[in-house]
Amino acid sequence: MLNGCAAEDFVTTRLASRSATVRFGHEAGHNYRPRCLRVSLGSRIRFEGPFDAHPLAPGRVEAGIPIDEDTARGPVSEVLGGQSAEFVAATPGRFGYYCDSHVVEGMMGAIEVVESVEVESGEVRGAP
Ligand SMILES: [Cu+2]
Prior knowledge:
The chain has strands at 11-12, 19-24, 32-33, 36-40, 44-48, 56-58, 60-62, 65-67, 84-88, 93-99, 108-114, 116-120, 123-127.
């Protein structure tokens, strides 16, 4: 479990374009949608929402408390203002992030970066 994401929770979006969007604030409220995102290596990940109200930070959260760890390998970095930010999934693995203002409410998520994502008979599968 990483930031509310079990292995089966990760969803894959927009396979062909190798890009995905995570929305927060506004109609998404104090949530990231999707919370648990799977992308293939090299994909672009766009965060859209009001960063001034929901400052983004990389890292793992346990029991509502951000745990300091080495997050340098993950795609997400700190964003404190603006309405959108774009990251590149450059390293395979699972990486957590959270909202620094609402982490105690559970405003957090994770990104799983896999080497490739295959689609077989309507089923989405990730190959680590
Ligand atoms: Cu927030």
